[in-house]
Amino acid sequence: MKALILAGGKGTRLRPLSCTRPKLLFPILNKPLLDWTLESLAEIGISEVTLAVKHMAEAFMQRYGKSKYGMKISYSREKKPMRTGGAIKYAEELIGHKEPFLVLNGDIFTKIDYTKLLKKHKETNAVAIIALYRVEDPSRYGTVKLTEESRVTQFAEKAPPGQAPSNLINAGIYVLDPKIFDHIPGGRPVSIEHEIFPKLAKEGKFFGHEFKEIWMDIGKSRDYLKANRILLDTEEKKRHLGKDANIDEKVKFNDPVMVDAEVKIGQKSRVGPHAIIGRDVVLGREVLLENSVVFPGAILSDFASVTGAVIGEGATIGKGAKISEGCIIGDYVTIRDNITLSRDVTVCPSKEVTESVPESTRII
Ligand code: GDD
Ligand code: MG
User: Which tens digits make up the pLDDT trace of 195-220?
Assistant: First the structure.
């Protein structure tokens, strides 16, 4: 069976970190989200994965090449953003008409049992099966009305608060029959959620499958941190120390923590809970790091304090600097010594911050 991963979105809600990397390549527990997805597809025996790409297409092609995890990887490279439905139509030749195929929104993390979803497709022979997940607030998602026989009779994309047909949301995971290609107009951008699913629902060719395994969307920075935190909590091992990590014996760990290879941590630093530290990161002495993700190669100098933040690749946090809750520091940013950033400050890649920032703002 083939799978198509929609990977062409801009990830604007994840700026400034998405200025320099596609959101599918954001590390989740120190491994790019797309690698998690590909591994799970390899496990269920998918033979070929097509990546529908546009924004930062080269980053995908360079990293994944022609095969990964034993699967063939191909690229459907759009000339302009075709949106979700248009991207599926654009990949029609690569996918072919032989058999049903799996489609995934690339920006979700899930441990769904795909075999149940595929079984549902066999039972119903529908044009589309959609995986559904129950949430409290469905306003950021597509929602459905489902009959007792799991038929989708209504699909509403991002309905205004109070108007969603249910709390069952579109998890961005579908099994589609090749007949779907006849339902999507070619040659122009098409939103499958706005244009195609509502029609399929009316025509009775659309079925849903509710699942309860882990599902997370990393569309916004807060979701990204939360996803890392929740997944770290689900790890059996509470303290991961990567190969050749150089950790002073006076470091105080507050588990759970995850430290990648070649990381250095200086004396009396306090690390965790929920500290996820990428490869080659350096923490000086007496650094405080909690509830944060630090991308590879960043430096947190002596006495720096980082709480509830994401620190981009190769960024330098100066001595005694204080990075507060909700801050997102872009790649290769420099925060000078003794600077304090208040809550929710975001800093664009390669900027140098030379004065403290007393209120939530974007430094561009
Ligand atoms: N190739 C390609 N081309 N991919 C695209 C394009 C495009 O023009 N536009 C978006 N994508 C990809 C994104 O990279 C993402 O992986 C996926 O399509 C969904 O797009 P988002 O922009 O992330 O949509 P959303 O999060 O607002 O809503 C979607 O996902 C929700 C679940 O997370 C919808 O499918 C909702 O119905 C759903 O509930
Ligand atoms: Mg999304």
Answer: 999 999 999 889 999 999 999 998 88
Residues 198 and 56 in one domain: yes
Instruction: Report how far residue 139's alpha carbon sits from residue 166's, in angstroms, rounded to the nearest whole number.
Output: 10
On whether the pTM is more than 0.90, the answer is yes
Within this chain, do residues 16 and 165 fall inside the same structural domain, yes or no? yes
Nearest alpha carbon, ligand 1 atom 13: 9
48 DSSP β-pair partners = 2, 72
Give yes or no: 264 in active site: no
Give every residue of the chain whose pLDDT is below 70, as ranges. none
Q: Are residue 69 and residue 217 in the same domain, yes or no?
A: yes
219 CA distance to ligand 2 middle (Å): 5
Q: Which domain holds residue 156?
A: 2-222
Same domain as 239, residue 214? no
| Residues in contact with ligand 1 (CB, 6 Å cut-off) | 6-9, 52-54, 78, 81-84, 87, 105-108, 141-142, 157, 169-170, 172, 193, 217, 219
